[in-house]
Amino acid sequence: MEKILTDRMRINIGPQHPSTHGVMRMIVDLDGETVENVETVIGYLHRGMEKMAETSTYIQYLPIVDRIDYLSGFFCSYAYVNGIELLMDIEISEKSKYIRTITMELNRMASHLLWLGCFMMDLGASSPFFYTFIEREKILDIFENLTGNRMMYNYYTFGGVKRDIDKENLYAIKKFSDEFVFALKDLEELINYNPIFISRTKNLGILEKECAYAYSITGVNLRASGIKKDLRKDKPYLIYENIEFNVPISENKDVQARYILRIKELKESNKIVQQCIDWLLTNLNNKNIITDVKPLTLKPEGIAISEVESSRGLMQCIIYADGTLNPYRIKWRTPSFYNVQIINEISKGYLLSDLIAIFGSLDIIMPEVDR
């Protein structure tokens, strides 16, 4: 029998691969170097984050939630503690709202900077990685001085925050914020007009609006497809309705659009940080950072859906409380889980090398996929 030779093949990318940003497997069907189909396989990192809540008290579960998305721990903490505050009808102080806002926006900036450095590494450029991590380290230094930790902060608590933000920390944040404008300009000059970068990102990985809606995509990936949805504007929480900032969108729908929007988000987050600094410096003598709550005896009852616009999109914490010391059930809705689903839809017809750029542009963090 004659053996027929074809150019079609099936290859594995991951689950242990630097460009999958964690333990995820992509089974890729190729015709030569052209992608015909991508099957994503998740579950290699499952940690039982939701199940652990059922055997923990509300205060015992609090330090764990930072690990849902280890690059955006403040957003996870806010989603959880805000859910309990909704159930218990707890009103937090104005100062606590400003402190939560400034820490979350700094966290968004740190996350986007890490994404940018790793994304450029995926494309073969190593220099931007060092530029982005220099700035990210400055933010982590601020977090360490404020919370005692560089990544898993455990700083928010039911009714507010655990410790006040002092003048030294505020001036450190102000110094970083003022200098960051110039650092970001250097990054843009390094990347934006690089012909190799343009050729590897422009008109690739097109995510149409209909597809984005069908797969429940949120965050930058949705806004890069021309849909202006941002929870901070659509359903303001904390003090966002008192803050001036824009929600950048793009109609280009490609890898380059997702990069450009994250750069613009860095600028907008920095604007929010500066406005929070001004308010906090004016209200330094206000020591009201926490409402009187007894976390060891919390026994909320009911169902609460708490949501936040995290670095990667809409994050929700759904809490089922039955009036005991432990949650009956906690469910997390995380944006990366949905972002994984569209890889096949936006990768067909492109080259294998383009698949890495497309995947990287989605900013997927595997711990929040495998909860």
| Alpha-beta content class | alpha+beta
How much β-strand is present in the residues? 5-15%
The unreliable regions are none
Strand order of the largest sheet: 1-2-3
Distance between the termini: 50 Å
CATH homologous superfamily grouping: Cytochrome-c3 Hydrogenase, chain B
Structure annotation, total helices: 15
Q: What would CATH call the class? A: Mainly Alpha
Shape: globular
**What does the radius of gyration come to?**
21 Å
CATH architecture: Orthogonal Bundle
Please characterize this protein's 3D structure.
It contains 15 helices and eight strands. With 371 residues, it is of the alpha+beta class. It has a single domain, classed as Cytochrome-c3 Hydrogenase, chain B, CATH 1.10.645. A hairpin with a 6-residue loop joins β7 and β8. α4 (94-122) runs antiparallel to α11 (255-282). The longest helix is centred in the N-terminal third of the chain and has 29 residues, at 94-122. The protein is globular and about 70 Å long. The model has no long low-confidence stretch (mean pLDDT 90).
List keywords for this structure.
371 residues, alpha+beta, Cytochrome-c3 Hydrogenase, chain B, three-stranded antiparallel sheet, 15 helices, 8 strands, globular
